[in-house]
Amino acid sequence: MSSGRAYRRRARVDRSTATRDRILQAVRALLAEGTFHESTMAQVAARAEVSRATLYQHFRSRVELVDAMCDTFAKNPALRELRETVRLDDPTAAVARTIDGSIRFWSSEDPVLRELYGVAAIDPAAQALVDRQRADRRSELERLVQNLRRAGRLAGAASQKRALNLLLVLTSYETYRELREAGLSDKQAIALLQEAATVLLTRSAV
């Protein structure tokens, strides 16, 4: 392949990536404004300043748009750190870090997530994202609970199933929103939830 042909191909890829990013930025803006669930694909295209044909080249439906938004969350530093936390040698510390990372992630994406979680019951696209997030979070927390059990750090009354259910509640977006509505800052919410996890789930190493 000639260098000129390779350059043109790279240029096309770069333009395609830039267009995709612009579309997702438009979706993020509509979500933050609370209007995405009412928006048509044509309105998304207009907001991104692309044609409908161009939009459909990248995304065939609103569900695909929201699914792609979920992929963008993977670039969030708080979420990247959170996914590494379960690998810590000290599982008790991992619980505290998991709560800290969860709150920081929810807080950083709150304008978008508030819209998606709020309309999930009536918007299949939003429901798909919420279901995917919950499945991913459950998988990560199951690994954390297994590490706690293997290390002998689960409190006597905390079975693996009970521990998992408690962690699902302590790290959920719904819990984060309840605490914010109650007036707690992120720092206060983290401290409260870490204390609850210590009392309900773990015991000190012997």
What does this structure look like?
With 206 residues, this protein is mainly alpha-helical. It folds into 2 domains: 3-60, Arc Repressor Mutant, subunit A; 73-200, Tetracycline Repressor, domain 2, CATH 1.10.357. 76% of the residues lie in helices and 0% in strands. The protein has 11 helices and no strands. It has helices at residues 3-33, 41-48, 52-58, 62-73, 77-85, 91-108, 110-119, 124-150, 160-170, 173-181, 186-200. Helix 1 packs across helix 7 (110-119) and helix 6 (91-108) packs antiparallel against helix 8 (124-150). The protein is elongated and about 60 Å long. The mean pLDDT is 87.
Brief sketch in words of this structure:
This protein has 206 residues and is an all-alpha fold. The chain has helices spanning 3-33, 41-48, 52-58, 62-73, 77-85, 91-108, 110-119, 124-150, 160-170, 173-181, 186-200. The model has no long low-confidence stretch (mean pLDDT 87).
